[in-house]
Specification:
Number of strands: 13
Largest sheet: 5 strands, mixed
Distance between the termini: 37 Å
Structural class: alpha/beta
CATH superfamily of the largest domain: ATPase, nucleotide binding domain
Mean pLDDT: 90
Order of helices and strands: EEHEHEHEEEHEHEEHHEHEHHE
Radius of gyration: 21 Å
Strand content: 15-25%
Helix content: 40-55%
CATH topology of the largest domain: Nucleotidyltransferase, domain 5
């Protein structure tokens, strides 16, 4: 719907850069999903809810997640750090005394954590990820071609011909938007090389974030990571060549998750199924109506 709404209708993103941007709309969104999980009927009781939050957020930002979820109708709210949920979702043995590194690059945030004995040993977070890549493409199109495109078109361009490493066969994609000179529709062909150059500064920031985290990792856990590699998840994990780029620059094996878009959701599902035995990975809790 973004960019396609009529007069009087506004699209809102309740969450931006991994944190709440609109408290009221976040509560409404949670109420909607609680109803949807109950076959479209508002739950008679108040369910227990587990939510994910970025690993480096403040206590105030974490409390906002809890309050919004309670406002949405939850009885109890538990918070799990996003990399922990992703690691559980992809099946990493985080309860064992060995290093497990997970890198989660989503829309609003990029996060990395080293886990051992069901806890976070070192972590890092960057509010630069897929959305920042889309913005970079939008700005490139405006500056180089005086063409105005929306975020949905930018994302499609990124997903179709975007890459982090040179391709064996470079691609082209026809982009349609509004010409800023005369205001009329216009289409041009963009090469994957140009998109890659546009994305490169963002990818470099993500790689450096991972590097900094590895430099702070205890030696014994670093040895485990060097042996078994790190797991890459999140929507941006699907960007062609990103796993090879990280592996090449950091000299460590990189495995892309089988379901990178759903790793966090899969992890929360496992937490709910095994709540009593896995409760120790939760970082905070809030209580509402009983």
């Amino acid at each position: 719907m973004t960019g396609k709404t009529p007069i009087g209708v506004e699209t809102v993103r309740p969450l931006q850069s991994g944190v709440i941007a609109d408290f009221e709309m976040t509560g409404a969104l949670i109420r909607h999903f609680l109803s949807k999980a109950n076959n479209g009927i508002r739950p008679l009781g108040h369910p227990r809810v587990i939510i994910c939050a970025p690993v480096e957020i403040t206590e105030v930002e974490r409390k906002a997640f809890i309050d919004a979820t309670l406002d949405g109708g939850a009885r109890e709210v538990y918070v799990v750090e996003e990399p922990v949920a992703a690691a559980i979702g992809v099946g990493l043995p985080i309860e064992e005394p060995r290093g497990n590194m997970i890198v989660d690059v989503g829309g609003g945030t990029s996060e990395v954590a080293v886990l051992s004995l069901s806890g976070v040993v070192v972590s890092n977070s960057l509010r630069v990820a897929g959305d920042e890549m889309d913005n970079a493409i939008i700005n490139m199109m405006r500056q180089n071609y005086t063409l105005s495109i929306g975020s949905a078109t930018a994302e499609e361009l990124k997903n179709t011909i975007g890459s982090a490493m040179p391709m064996n066969s470079e691609k082209e994609f026809e982009v349609r938007g509004r010409n800023l000179k005369d205001g009329l529709p216009r289409g041009i062909r963009i090469s994957s090389t140009e998109v890659r150059e546009t994305l490169n500064p963002v990818i470099t920031q993500i790689v450096e974030m991972i590097r900094e985290t590895m430099e702070r990792t205890p030696p014994e856990l670093a040895r485990d990571i060097a042996d078994q590699g790190l797991v890459l998840t999140g929507g941006v994990a699907l960007l062609e060549g990103l796993d090879r780029r990280i592996s090449q620059e950091l000299n460590v094996p990189v495995i892309t998750a089988e379901r990178p878009l759903f790793s966090v959701a899969d992890g929360i599902g496992k937490l709910l199924d095994q709540f009593d035995s896995m409760k120790k990975v939760l970082v905070s809790v809030g209580h509402g109506v009983r």
